[in-house]
Amino acid sequence: MSLPKFEYIKVKSIGEVCEALGKYKRKAKVMAGGTDLLVQMKDRVITPEYVIGLRGVEGLGRVVYDRKEGLKIGAMATHREVINSGVARRRYPSLVEALEKIGTGQVRNMGTIGGNICNAAPSADSAPILIALGAEVRIAGANGEREVLLEKVFRGPRKTVLGADEVLVEIVVPNERVHSGSHYEKLFARTSVDLAAVGAACWLIKDGKSGVIKDIKIVLGAVAPVPMRAKKAERVIKGKVVTEGLIKEAGEVAAGESKPISDIRASEEYRREMVKVMVRRAIKGALGRIA
Question: What CATH number corresponds to the domain at position 238?
């Protein structure tokens, strides 16, 4: 199926992007890598009259590390560019491993982190681990810039907090803390290139002397309208020394918090059962990363 007719708008700065979005409002869509947008346009899920290409905006593709703020990922940085980043591989291995689970090699080469977030698919692989790591996003608009915690960005399938004249500019992943670890688990629907049927990410920090878990985040993907924190499951672990029994209980509680649906990838019942497994694996994987 061919693409619907649209006007392509070239821009060279974030200011021009916001100006075009302010002018055309909901008639316009921003295109980063295009791996999600173009498919949706071909399927007539969306039919924008204007497509604003970000490729000409300088600086949006950078992946840099700041000692104070952490890892800064431009919205146009591809999954492959983050995967190949030496500093990302050294300091944020769980993020790299999550991105390596996204689609095919071609998708990782073309698809962008910013696009994966703004597409707001419940099954997005980048969202759970980034939320677990405490990432924030920088959003630019006609009235200036604002920073939003990533877990507050999603409002529903394909819906975010971005206004009609706003664009995501950067994702900032804070520095990992001493005695902390993180991990992402993905249940494939059929093959390794499929969307997640269930995703689970965990970040935790352990007291170096007592072994007590001082803080923890458990984030689920593909089992609710948006990537979600399993806060009741977090409370099972937080403030305690981890045991096999507690890990099992956390998985069961997380399954109860999840809100899966049945679709072509998996049934509601199967997803809920697999949340238990994925959460247990994510917790154990995060514990295994603590030096």
Answer: 3.30.390.50
* CATH number of the domain to which 119 belongs: 3.30.465.10
Nearest Cα neighbor of 98 from 290, 278, 251 is: 278
Please tell me whether residues 136 and 157 are part of one structural domain. yes
User: Residue 220: beta bridge partners?
Assistant: 200, 228
Same domain, 234 and 165: no
Instruction: Give the Å distances, CA to CA, from 3 to 28, 37, 45.
Output: 15, 11, 11
φ/ψ (deg, to 5) at 151 = -65, -15
Q: From CA 145, how far away is CA 107, in angstroms rounded?
A: 29
Q: What is the pLDDT of residues 165-223, one digit of tens each?
A: 999 999 999 999 999 999 999 997 665 557 789 999 999 999 999 999 999 999 999 99
Closest CA to 98 of 7, 189, 200, 172: 200
Helices (H) and strands (E) in the chain, counts: 11, 14
289 and 132 Cβ atoms separated by less than 8 Å: no
What is the pTM (predicted TM-score) of this model? 0.93
